[in-house]
Amino acid sequence: MDRITPLETMLAAGKDNSLLRYGLGQAYLDDGQPTPAITHLRACVAHDATYSAAWKLLGKAYMAAGDTAAAADAWRHGIAAAQGRGDKQAEKEMTVFVRRAERSPGPHPD
């Protein structure tokens, strides 16, 4: 089932918010399209910079696009967001992702 089209339709209708942008980012990433995923996830964190799950997914999208440095940077922002919200699990996961990215420039996070 195409998850992207209905979400893009909602966005075109003016329903722009962090949850919609997160959903679009996830849908594009799941579809193997990291570039539009990055666009939507950057918009998501622009709407809500404390959305640690969005930072985590943005890092994964950058890794899928082959940009290790941008991925690590997104995860660092995500770690700060997670710390601010007390989200210890997201903080731990992104800390591991940053360490892996710094050691080896290949895609890692699952």
Description:
The chain has helices spanning 4-12, 18-30, 34-47, 52-64, 68-85, 88-103. The mean pLDDT is 93. Helices cover 75% and strands 0% of the residues. It is mainly alpha-helical. The chain has one domain: Alpha Horseshoe (Serine Threonine Protein Phosphatase 5, Tetratricopeptide repeat), CATH 1.25.40.
Architecture blueprint of SSEs:
Blueprint: H1 4-12, H2 18-30, H3 34-47, H4 52-64, H5 68-85, H6 88-103
Helix pairs in contact: 1-2, 2-3, 2-4, 3-4, 4-5, 5-6
In short:
This protein is mainly alpha-helical. The chain is built from 6 helices and no strands.
CATH architecture: Alpha Horseshoe
- Reading the helices and strands in chain order gives HHHHHH
CATH fold naming: Serine Threonine Protein Phosphatase 5, Tetratricopeptide repeat
What fraction strand? under 5%
CATH homology superfamily name: Tetratricopeptide repeat domain
Shape descriptor? globular
Helix content: over 70%
Q: What is the CATH class designation?
A: Mainly Alpha
Radius of gyration: 14 Å
